[in-house]
Amino acid sequence: MSTTHKDPLILTVGQIATIWILSDIAYYIVLPVVGVNLNYNAQPIGIALYYLLWVCITLLALSPIFRSWRPFVDGRGTYMMLATMVTVVVVFLAYILPKFEPIVWAEAWTPPSELLFATSWYFLPKSIEILLQQLLVAALTLAFAARGFSVRTTALWCALLFGGGHLLLVFGGAPLGYIIRFATAATLAGFAFPYLLLRTENGFAYSYMLHWLYYAATIVLIHTISPYAT
């Protein structure tokens, strides 16, 4: 499966959507069959390897799109920016996350237990899953840009497709309200990603970090301002 800028846009979008859907469905169907517990804290390495496989598939399948893409600009500013981001991650995982105690959740359905009881191991597979999603968003953005679409039009399509992709949470048995919250956040982020990727130097790093920080903030909010936090 490969694509070029000469292919119809619908074909490129279909390939990106296929990777997204198959990786998500296979997570819920295939991993339990091979004995992998669907909990990022319980089996972080197994799940991380699963998403790493899909990262490789994405890079191979969509290589014509990525061939001329430079996600990072070489320079002192880039190194300082990356060092700052790594520092933020380390501080959060080493000093902030361990301070949160398990909470009692009073709703009939609880968020995924890895969010309620997240450890630093949670962010190993989550970080690679985010990388997979960011590569797919980048491919979509580059495909639209290569065909002359405006950033605004690209952002609208990314918002629609990225937000819609999170509707696959239904396979995890989540209630409608939870799915709507995540899909809404994904829609807003999907609109912002193309602006970062196309108009900001080292935009891929900022886009990735924004995505990563969303999950970090979700865990913080669950354990602080949530009415069910103890």
Q: Sheet bearing the most strands, described?
A: none
Per the principal axes of the C-alpha atoms, what is the gross shape? globular
Please report the total strand number as a whole number. Answer: 0
Helix share, percent: 55-70%
Look at the structure and give the mean pLDDT: 85
Spell out the helices and strands N to C.
HHHHHHHHH
What's the helix and strand layout?
Layout: H1 9-33, H2 44-61, H3 63-66, H4 76-96, H5 113-116, H6 123-146, H7 151-165, H8 176-199, H9 203-223
Architecture overview:
The chain has helices spanning 9-33, 44-61, 63-66, 76-96, 113-116, 123-146, 151-165, 176-199, 203-223. The protein contains nine helices and no strands. Helix 1 (9-33) runs antiparallel to helix 6 and helix 8 (176-199) runs antiparallel to helix 9. The mean pLDDT is 85. It is mainly α and 230 residues long. The termini are far apart. It is globular, with a radius of gyration of 18 Å.
